[in-house]
Amino acid sequence: MDVKGEFLEILDGLRSQKLAAFSQKLIKSPEILGVKTPELRRLAKQNFARLNLEQIAAYEPFFHEEFMLKGFLIMLVKDDEAKFKLASEFVKTMPNWAVTDGFEPKFTEARYVDALLKQALCSNLEYEKRFFYVYFMRNFGALSLERFFEICAEEKDERYYVQMAAAWCLAEVFIKFNGAGRELLESGRLSKFTHNKTISKIRDSYRVPKDVKDALLELKIK
Fold first, then answer.
1. Using CB atoms within 10 A of its CB, is residue 139 exposed (0-12), middle (13-18) or buried (19+)?
2. Do residues 117 and 143 lie in contact, with contact meaning Cβ atoms separated by under 8 Å?
3. 202: containing domain
4. N or C, which terminus of the chain has less Cβ within 10 Å?
5. How many CB atoms lie within 10 A of CB 21?
6. Coiled-coil stretches, from where to where (predicted)?
7. For residue range 43-81, what is the model confidence (pLDDT) as tens digits?
8. Angle at 210 (CA atoms; ends 140, 200), nearest 5 degrees
9. Does 203 lie in the same domain as 105?
10. In a domain? residue 162
11. pLDDT in tens, 143-179
12. How many DSSP H helices and E strands does the chain contain?
């Protein structure tokens, strides 16, 4: 039995129809088996040592859990260059927001983070483009905030999961860096959706004082 067959046999034994039905309502595609994320992380750690890079690269996921599993295997690769090669191909295949948000490869050399961010930013694929914003949240030092704000202001992609990620990231920047990005909100340069969703996400946070939330409410675009 090949690697894919072995993993599918294990995943089949871990699946839950109840979890699959619930998760499929949140994630439309691909098909979900119903295996919990901690189990997928454990499975990746238990099997990583016996796999070589060629086997990981050749693994073609079909089910949602297989995409998650492949991402977790790539994240375990220690060599920066090898990990980058695998990651740069994997992000092109990500099928939904959950796989995108769960993929967070770490590198010892910043140039690989920079290259992955640049690739994602220039992508025409919805989830690879979303990856830019999600990955930047985990690597705030990779770009100056001024450059990031310009990227957001110039963003023309109106696809839902891209705009949601941009708003999420802008909200995190605002909260983490003491109101950074307020001038961008005041400028009205963001798309209406991203603008209002950013404010909404900031206001949802318990880390933001009420007076700040109230002031931001006045900036919402009607």
1. middle
2. yes
3. 144-221
4. C
5. 11
6. none
7. 999 999 999 999 999 999 999 999 999 999 999 999 999
8. 55
9. no
10. yes
11. 999 999 999 999 999 999 999 999 999 999 999 999 9
12. 14, 0
Which residues 6+ apart lie within 8 Å of 50 measured at CB?
A: none
In-domain check, residue 178 = yes
**Residues in contact with 99: Cβ distance below 8 Å, sequence separation at least 6, in sequence order:** 64, 67, 68, 71, 127
Pair 38, 82 in one domain: yes
Buried b (16+ CB within 10 A) or exposed e, 64-101: bbbbbbbbbbbbbbeebeebbbbbbebbeebbbbbbbb
Please indicate, yes or no, whether residues 42 and 105 belong to a single structural domain of this protein.
yes
Side chain identity at 72, as an amino acid letter? Answer: F
Rounded Cα distance, 63 and 118, in Å: 28
Return d(Cα 114, Cα 85) in angstroms, integer. Answer: 13
- At residue 2 the predicted structure's pLDDT band, cuts being 50, 70 and 90, is confident
SS3 166: helix
Could you tell me if residue 16 is inside a domain?
yes
Domain check: are 169 and 64 in the same one? no
Tokens describing residue 146: 């001024």
Instruction: Decide if 166 contacts 200 (C-beta within 8 A).
Output: no
